[in-house]
Amino acid sequence: MILRIDPRSATPPFDQLRVQVIAHIRSGAMVAGTRLPTVRRLAADLVLAPNTVARAYKELEAGGFIETRGRAGSFVKAAPDSVEQQALGAAKTYVERLRELGVSPADTVAYVTTFLQN
């Protein structure tokens, strides 16, 4: 698995990593059961902070692409989640991020509503 991070890109490194792993999964380059490198190892290989890789893995897991098996590590999921499960994962990630930013639940709903109307 070849992953590259472009430090000059406007796309955050965690998202570059996430998108590349998804592309490898969808292309078949990473098959179900493939063990991903540890967070620390991949961070060292890509010269990233471990938290950056951890965030990418967390979002990949929320999206249904990988699963973490505790100390055994992170693996490509055996079967992709349903659209509903993927949507729930995306919603969870969105809500968690807005909570981190201190956005109220009412404003969070308002942002989604505004986006859907455009």
Q: How much helical structure, as a percent, in the residues? A: 55-70%
Low-confidence stretches: none
Task: Let me know the average pLDDT.
Answer: 90
Count the strands? 2
What does this 3D model show about the protein?
This protein is mostly helical. The chain has two domains: 1-80, Orthogonal Bundle (Arc Repressor Mutant, subunit A); 82-118, no CATH class. It is built from five helices and two strands, in the order αααββαα. It has a two-stranded antiparallel sheet with strand order 1-2. Strand 1 (66-68) and strand 2 form a beta hairpin. Helix 1 crosses helix 3. It starts with 12 loop residues before the first helix and ends with a helix.
Could you write a compact summary of the structure shown?
With 118 residues, this protein is mainly α.
Tag the structure with descriptive keywords.
Arc Repressor Mutant, subunit A, globular, 118 residues, mainly alpha, two-stranded antiparallel sheet, 2 domains
Indicate the topology.
Elements: H1 13-27, H2 39-46, H3 50-62, E1 66-68, E2 74-76, H4 83-100, H5 105-117
Antiparallel strand pairs: 1-2
Helix pairs in contact: 1-3, 2-3
